Amino acid sequence: MFFSVASKAEQNLTLWYSHQDNSFINLLVDEFKKENNINISLVQFDPEKIKAEILLGAQYGGLPDLVIFPSDFVGLHRLMKLSRIPEDWFLSDISPSAKSTAFADRKYWGIPVIQGNNLLLYYNKKLVSKPARSWESLLASKQQYIDKNILPIGWNYQDMYYFIPFLSAFNGWPITDNQISLNTPEMVAALKYYRDLAKQKVVDEQCHYTCSQADFVQGKEAYAINGDWAYQDLKNTMGENLGVALLPTINGSQMRSMKSTFVLSLPNYSSRPKQEKKLIEKFAKFVQRPSIQTLVYEKTRLLPVSEHLLGEYKKQAKGNDKVLFEQFELSKPMPSSIKMAIAWQAIAIGFKRYEDGLSAEESAEYMQHIATQQMRRLKNE
């Protein structure tokens, strides 16, 4: 009888996620478990791989009950078999700008849990006394680091998310007037600048995300460009040696990272059993609670989606916390449409062609060609 009762009492859900900060996800799940007799199985994916895993799961079966991923993924809601979020699931205090990130094709496909997801300039206070405000200043100091066998700066060079702030500094943006806009003079100028940094050995173009973060923590890089998602990990490891600054300007122009939310989305919700649906709805409302949003911010410094809480924490912010808010304000929202998903693919393919020998002009043209072809294919499906 004991085993029969136990099996009925404890229910199971599976949650996939891609956020680097494990403590953020564990916090949500552990707090929810305190109120509910439930087992939530967590599966963490590399940020570069979770999109493909969900698309494969949608095509061949094996989707989880819940996913937490960047809001631009909702543009792929049809391919990912995401279910629409009912309007009455949203709490009233949620920031309208945060809520809008989960909106595509006139419906909501996710519930924002945290916001930010933007890039910052980190620096090692043991190596940098005063952070550079411009790339001109940073480049002028590069030799002092190179002479000591220290890389001036590191980031995940091959990931085009990190390229976007450079594009923005040349007044370019991948989506303009709701159209994919890649074959532009701004794109050409940004590509040349970005590639030249690697040629100058300012950044290691072969160093991926894990490599770059490890090198920065170990003092092999003076600066690092990384996301707000890495802040708590870096702080825990480096302590008072961690410095945070705004992304440096280029020729006086501000670099603007993309920002978004991490949303809770529901693959195949409509096909779930009734009891499971109740639990999923409960969890969706639970993660929006002010008390939970407060707990997450105070433990991880990930920004809440509550408009009231965001305003209060912004007023109180000092030191590194103040920089987190300032960079968030300077960042531009990432479009949550299928066009952005197509633009990412086109930029990545075009940049690889640029590295392989195409000119910047030819690469920008090729990016646009890839995007146009993909849009046509989508319309014909």
Automatic annotation (TrEMBL):
<keyword id="KW-0813">Transport</keyword>
<keyword id="KW-0732">Signal</keyword>
<protein>
    <submittedName>
        <fullName>ABC transporter substrate-binding protein</fullName>
    </submittedName>
</protein>
<dbReference type="Pfam" id="PF13416">
    <property type="entry name" value="SBP_bac_8"/>
</dbReference>
<dbReference type="InterPro" id="IPR006059">
    <property type="entry name" value="SBP"/>
</dbReference>
<comment type="similarity">
    <text>Belongs to the bacterial solute-binding protein 1 family.</text>
</comment>
